[in-house]
Amino acid sequence: MIVMTLVVIGPVTKDLIVIGSEKSHRVGGATYFQSFVFEKFYEDYLALVNCDDESLVEDFPDLSKVKVIKKDNTHFFINDYPFEDNLNIRNQLSNFAHIPVLPSDLEGILPEKIDGFVINPLNRYDFPGETMEYLKSFNVPIFLSIQGFLRIPCKPVNENYTIKLDYFGELDSILSEVCAIFMDEAEAKVIGFDYDVDEIVITNGSFGSRVLADGEIKIDSVKCDDVVDTTGCGDTYMAAYVSHRLKNCSIEESGNFASLIASEKLKHSGHY
């Protein structure tokens, strides 16, 4: 039997979560949240994270499935939820660390057989064009989160910056040959939908999600009466969706499964 592996790449982060007057420090980043989903639903995965603080990977579900791409900084995010009774409203700040994943970082650490790539940029620096071209050369499905490519630093606050979404001129070339892209409705308003990809997955919190493929497929949200933490919910949805699509489930089946798993994540503080 040929063993193949899903390779998930993107920063692990130091996060400060503020909900009302309560503060907590946590490990975060899309690759971190997704690793818990893949651990349960797609066990043949490898997480590659770029950071300088290697202790952050100790919180991953299986240390044998994570490798650190050593850099000279680590992404830091503040997720501030000012209203405890409405966790859909979030103010976010970041240090906008410049720690790109380069082709030379990946050579020698990628598995011999690869099912696909899940790419999770948290800002525009994370995946330069040369890296995306290198990943495309493997000719396997690429599932890409859009959010990081749209983030730019705005108003400085101490050593961090508020985040603004803006169009990224290199998106056309970056998205060519990508299998599926993931975004929320706010990000969709910034970039539109005119891209040559098989699937465009757009999430909208408690209002559900939709997938643009051959037409539009609407996915209902799964109601959650006890929302504890929304941080990482979109990342969880993406991982659940990818895990099902790689098992040849339909778009509708994958979306409904992703909605269910995202709803379960809402009930827990931290990861799924």
Characterization of this structure:
The chain is 25% helix and 31% strand. With 272 residues, the chain is of the alpha/beta class. The chain has one domain: Ribokinase (UDP-N-acetylmuramoyl-L-alanine:D-glutamate ligase), CATH 3.40.1190. It has a 9-stranded mixed sheet with strand order 5-4-1-8-9-12-13-14-15. Strands 3-2-6-7-11-10 form a 6-stranded mixed sheet. A hairpin with a 1-residue loop joins strand 14 and strand 15. 40% of the residues are buried. The mean pLDDT is 91.
Keywords:
272 residues, alpha/beta, UDP-N-acetylmuramoyl-L-alanine:D-glutamate ligase, nine-stranded mixed beta sheet, six-stranded mixed beta sheet, 8 helices, 15 strands
Brief description of this entry?
With 272 residues, this protein is α/β, with parallel strands linked by helices. Helix content is 25%, strand content 31%.
Structural class: alpha/beta
> In CATH terms, what is the architecture?
3-Layer(aba) Sandwich
The CATH class label is Alpha Beta
Provide the spatial order of strands within the biggest beta sheet: 5-4-1-8-9-12-13-14-15
CATH fold-level label: UDP-N-acetylmuramoyl-L-alanine:D-glutamate ligase
Q: How many domain modules?
A: 1
- The amount of helix comes to 25-40%
Count every beta strand, where a strand is a DSSP E run of 2 or more residues.
15
Separation of the first and last Cα atoms: 30 Å
Mean pLDDT comes to 91
Largest sheet report: 9 strands, mixed
Contiguous runs where pLDDT drops below 50 for at least 5 residues = none
Radius of gyration: 17 Å
The SSE order reads EEEHEEEEHEHEHEEHEHEEEHH
